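Need tokens for this chain, all 144 residues.
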Amino acid sequence: MNEIKYSTSLNSLIYQDSVAIRTEVFVNEQNVPKELEIDDLENKCTYFVLYKENKAVACARFFPTADNGIHVQRVAVLKEYRHKNLGTELLNYIFNFVTKENYSYIVLGAQDHAQTFYKKLGFKVIGKQYQEAGILHHDMKLEL
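Here are the structure tokens for all 144 residues:
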């Protein structure tokens, strides 16, 4: 059975598990520089981690925007757990979480190879393509 936990504390195990997943996926697999992965938004976010059989396998974070939305970032699933709907499960949990808080939309910067995944969840591409950490992205938005 999967369990999803969340925290805003940088001293929490949830945050530490999130950073471990992000380091594996973004730094080790995708060669994102560590100094770009850990940023100045760390203390402004809520962190979510999905645990499968007590192992941290997927993560995401968000922070509120100035106009009643949220910006989701750092969505990652460990390689051996991909294509098992864990990313979908985690994001649906976050969608329910923020809907209860009456946010009006979710925006994120999707790596271009992941656009199909986000489109299946209802996101639409907004804006032009850009490069972040050497990876092509598009911003995507979901109205709640």
